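step: validate -> pass
step: tokenize input -> pass
step: predict -> running
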Amino acid sequence: MLDELGKYYDSFSTENKQRYEVIDTKMLYEDGIIDAITQLDHLEDSLRLTIPDYDEENLPKFLTNMEAQILRDIAYNYGLLEEYEPAIAILEHIKDNIETNAVDKTFSSRKLIDICYSLSKFLGLMGKYDESIQVAKEGIACCEYVSNLSKLPSCMYNCAWSMSHRNDDGDKKEAKKLAEEALSLCTSRVWNADELTECINRLLVEIESQ
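step: predict -> pass
step: emit ->
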């Protein structure tokens, strides 16, 4: 489909060129044709189609839905490269942008789910457990508010993982409860269910051994 659509690339609007470039780039990465560094370069170039002066030190104040999605993909790509600080900075910027500018709670909650999932993950990997837990809980609340099951167990897992690593008084008990609940929700409707199930089971073993 992309090959066929690509024949009309020159007649696309700027926004549709941007959309095409992003999809093409992500598929090339998934197929193993380009690596994560090249994917990051391509994603940043696609964002510059509508934000010419973009760089990670000059994040745009106002974003279209498409630009916010590309920025999210850029942040996640930094995470793939284990460059968590720029990933966190970008995700926090998008989160603040959504919370500041959204006029509808349902709309903002749907948009925040992926942001909270990725942000809580990277904060946890940076050892910022308190912040990770807070953001993961926000993601859980957003999932529950809009009845989104697909990412709910993942947000629960992130929260449980950071709790188990923080290991304050009561964390072990709450982390185990959250992990078991997340595991019970891992059905075919859940994003990345097989991999997530393995991660949760591994976490439960770690919690029991603490």
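step: describe -> The chain has a mean pLDDT of 93.
step: cleanup -> pass
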